[in-house]
Task: structure prediction
Amino acid sequence: MKATNWVDITDARSYELVFDPVALQNEGSYRLQTSYEGVTSSGRPVHLRVLPAAQFAALTYVPSSGTFQFKLETEAGFNYRLEASADLTNWLYLSTLDNFGGSQPIADTEAGSFRQRFYRLVIAGP
Result:
């Protein structure tokens, strides 16, 4: 018999496994196995990949043009959507970064029109 690190979640009544918040140590393979009235059923293993947080570096504001510049560094090979917000509630699309190479300079030419501006990166697909 092959050893596993599977863990029973007693009294589980859902087909969802939630990590909130997800952490790097949660990365790995998971499989749902259900037992009901003596019948056991197993699903195929799925792999959870946890990406490190994106890094926003070399932050520079150019007052004469109202441009905010930064260097974005994150996991390569994914499609990302860069968004901005003035209030952390309403997010606006800025650009799509297809097949991101891992590091790229970004310039937000509209940043000077806002008292404050926040940025986030959303995975748009592999």
Q: What stands out?
A: The mean pLDDT is 85. Residues 55-125 form one domain.
